[in-house]
Amino acid sequence: MKPANTLKIVDINYYENAASMLQKAFVSIHCNCALCANNLEIAVSSTDAGEVKEEAYCPRCEMKLRSKNYVLQ
């Protein structure tokens, strides 16, 4: 069960300030599946302890490709 404070970013095709080829490559690497180039479903959730969890999932490959925890200062 997902927490109530989960944000799902699925169909975002606008990236601010991604004008250069290096910036576009960075966005492509982080937002697309490395195996099939499909858009990733990115879920972000936070806790009251100041921790943010990011998970990236490819619906076509049915694989979780990234799971990161960030501690807010």
Would you mind describing this structure in some detail?
The structure is a single chain. With 73 residues, the protein is an alpha+beta fold. It has one domain. It has 1 helix and 4 strands, in the order E-H-E-E-E. The chain has a 4-stranded antiparallel beta sheet with strand order 1-2-3-4, with no helix packed on it. The radius of gyration is 14 Å and the shape is flat.
Characteristic key phrases:
73 residues; disordered N terminus; 36% strand; 4-stranded antiparallel beta sheet; 4 strands; single chain; 1 helix; alpha+beta
Short note summarizing the structure:
This protein is of the alpha+beta class. Helices cover about 15% and strands about 35% of the residues.
Largest sheet: 4 strands, antiparallel
Distance between the termini: 27 Å
- Beta strand count: 4
Low-confidence stretches: 1-12
**Radius of gyration from the alpha-carbon trace, in angstroms:** 14 Å
Biggest sheet strand order reads 1-2-3-4
Average pLDDT level = 78
Order of helices and strands: EHEEE
Strand content: 35-45%
Structural class, please?
A: alpha+beta
What level of helicity do the residues show? 10-25%
Shape: flat
Note the total helix count: 1
Q: How many domains, in number, for the residues? A: 1
Topology:
Layout: E1 7-9, H1 21-31, E2 41-46, E3 51-58, E4 63-71
Antiparallel strand pairs: 1-2, 2-3, 3-4
